[in-house]
Amino acid sequence: MSGWLRRNAIALGAVVVLVPASLFVSFSSDWLSYWQQRASSPVAVDRGADVGFGGAKWRVTEVQRIRSTELPADAGAPPGTDAVVVSVAVSPGEATAPGCLFTLEETREGAEPRSWSADTGADIDLGLGLDVPLSCDPEQTGDYTLEAVFVVPADTGDALRLNVEVVDELPRYLSVTL
After folding, report:
1. At 103, phi and psi to the nearest 5?
2. What are the residues whose beta carbons fall under 8 Å from the beta carbon of 158, sequence distance 6 or more?
3. Which of 14, 55, 78, 123 is deepest in the core (most CB within 10 A)?
4. What angle do CA 38, 150, 60 make, to 5 degrees?
5. Chain segment 133-148, per-residue pLDDT in tens
6. SS3 per-residue string spanning the chain
């Protein structure tokens, strides 16, 4: 070993240890906050069950699948798609209803899960004549029913779950088997 390496061995060893340690400390807090703000811990519930979550009681009351052949011609739905309409009863109790986000997830054996966000009615008119909210209404003070509408590929199977995310509950989210 040369004279310079021998004189600086302790300093070089400290660099080899401290650089990875400081990188770990710097990025671990970001990584932890990422997982705490992401829906990553499901609370599994069966269809039709009342469950308290996010300051309200939730219950899926009906699931309707409208095949692509049954959709109105002027609905604006892409070819080869079906609509899944999920009716959800929300009972906020004494407080106002929480804001939420709905996703529909398909889990097929041997395949990657697929998921879709709810269509809030801006792009596709299914002609269902829904006079109920299409998403959570944080200003609602009493019990109400909403209809979450999802446009999915026609080859979507029947193994579906409705995921309900409430910001105050993250990383937990409600996952209802349909």
Report:
1. -135, 150
2. none
3. 55
4. 80
5. 777 878 878 888 888 8
6. CCHHHHHCHHHHHHHHHHHHHHHHHHHHHHHHHHHHCCCCEEEEECCCCCEEECCEEEEEEEEEEECCCCCCCCCCCCCCEEEEEEEEEEECCCCCCCCCEEEEEECCCCCCCEEEECECCCCCCCCCCCCCCCCCCCCCCCCEEEEEEEEEECCCCCCEEEEEECHHHCCEEEEEEC
Residue 27, φ and ψ in degrees, nearest 5: -90, -20
Beta strands 41-45 and 172-177 are: parallel
Distance CA 98, CA 106 (A): 25
Q: In sequence order, what are the residues at sequence separation of 6 or more whose Cβ sits closer than 8 angstroms to the Cβ of residue 15?
A: none
pLDDT digits (tens, 9 = 90+) for 121-178: 556 666 566 566 777 878 878 888 888 889 899 999 989 999 999 988 988 999 999 9
**Contact by Cβ (8 Å): 173, 43:** yes
